[in-house]
Amino acid sequence: MLWLIPLVLLLILATLDTGAVVRGFLGQQQLEEALTGMELVINPAGVPRKPGMTRDDLFNINAAIVKTLCEGIAKCCPKAIVNLISNPVNSTVPIAAEVFKKAGTFDPKRLLGVTMLDVVIANTFVVEVLGLDPREVDVPVVGGHVGVTILPLLSQVQKNLLNIHALSLLTDHIQNGGTEVVEVKHIFF
């Protein structure tokens, strides 16, 4: 398994008291060595969205990173399961798919995008508004991963006690939750 992680995290993981072997690779010059023989590649690589940064800005930076990585995967470990966490996930997964199609290695069952954040945000906000037990709330979220493309299916909340006004406010809050996190994160980090 290959995790693409920052050097600082690599150094921390290497000190853990486990049987796992942790090795570091640096940059594109060592990409083939890092990928050869991998069965699972988990990619959180890329830059996080910063205050004032648009999704287009984020896309332009992270798309190039994902493209390069996927070209390496197609060459060195074409049967690997690829799990992309790089934002915006709804745009980086299609890039990966196109790279794999071009290389003749595309398998839709082996390409995954992690988008659980919007579900967690929706669940948290519903729990706050309705005062429910978090273990009993599971709000499905469909659509994209930005603003109005995020569609929380609030009608599926088991104890749907929301009026139309509350539904509208909660939907807007969920759709902008990721942006709110970025803005708050900037204050502390």
Description:
With 189 residues, the protein is an alpha/beta fold. Helix content is 47%, strand content 10%. The protein has a four-stranded parallel beta sheet with strand order 1-2-3-4, with helices on one face. A hairpin with a 6-residue loop joins β5 and β6 (150-152). α3 (55-76) runs parallel beside α4 (89-103) and α5 (116-130) runs antiparallel to α6 (164-175). The two termini are 30 Å apart. The model has no long low-confidence stretch (mean pLDDT 81).
What are the SSEs and their pairings?
Elements (H helix, E strand, L loop, with lengths): L1 E2 L3 H8 L16 H5 L4 E4 L11 H22 L4 E4 L4 H15 L7 E3 L2 H15 L10 E3 L6 E3 L11 H12 L1 H12 L1
Parallel strand pairs: 1-2, 2-3, 3-4
Antiparallel strand pairs: 5-6
Based on secondary structure, the structural category is alpha/beta
Secondary-structure element string:
EHHEHEHEHEEHH
Number-wise, the strands total: 6
* Gross morphology: elongated
What spatial order of strands do you see in the largest sheet? Answer: 1-2-3-4
Strand content: 5-15%
**Which regions have little confidence, pLDDT < 50, spanning 5+ residues?**
none
User: How many strands, which pairing sense, and closed or not: the largest β-sheet?
Assistant: 4 strands, parallel
Helix content: 40-55%
